[in-house]
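Holliday junction branch migration complex subunit RuvA
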Amino acid sequence: MIASLSGHVGHVGLDRIVLQVGGVGMLVHTTPRTAGELRTGQEATVATTLIVREESLTLFGFGSVAERDMFETVQTVSGVGPRLALAMLSVLTPDEVRAALTTGDVATLTKIPGVGKKSAERLVLELKDKVGMPSGSAGADVTSASAPSGDARRDQVAEALVGLGWSSKQASDAVATVSTAADPDASVAALLRMALRELGR
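Predicted structure tokens:
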């Protein structure tokens, strides 16, 4: 088990980073929130979990231990894999997930792409007594370095949303909606956060 990684950030994408550790570039899949907090060249530490499959070893990284722990906890439910768990933490903070599970808030859980009513009810049933009460801490305020403007920026956001599980149409509609209201100089990460909020309505 690789519990954490520390090193220089070699690359930051919308949902992944490359962390230079001991001369090796480690590809780490992460949430847009965590990626948005990092800058190329800075020293960083991320809490990680390694998913082992017969054909692959995949690292997932998070800005906090609470995020990583929730990522691992929700996967104890049948039918919830790393992709869905990551999508869950891209839409909701760990405390928001915990609150939805402990209160049986199925409506909030179904805002996550790939989670229908039955899946949400199963999550509540199996995890309600395992996740504890929300700590009340707010999610991190994510900022990001400037990114390409115009169509390229919108395309990157739409691609990230599709990667998280929304359909191309849902992604395009959300990007179109937030682009009209966003600051013209808004970064890709800022647009992505706005689109995630829009899709979570």
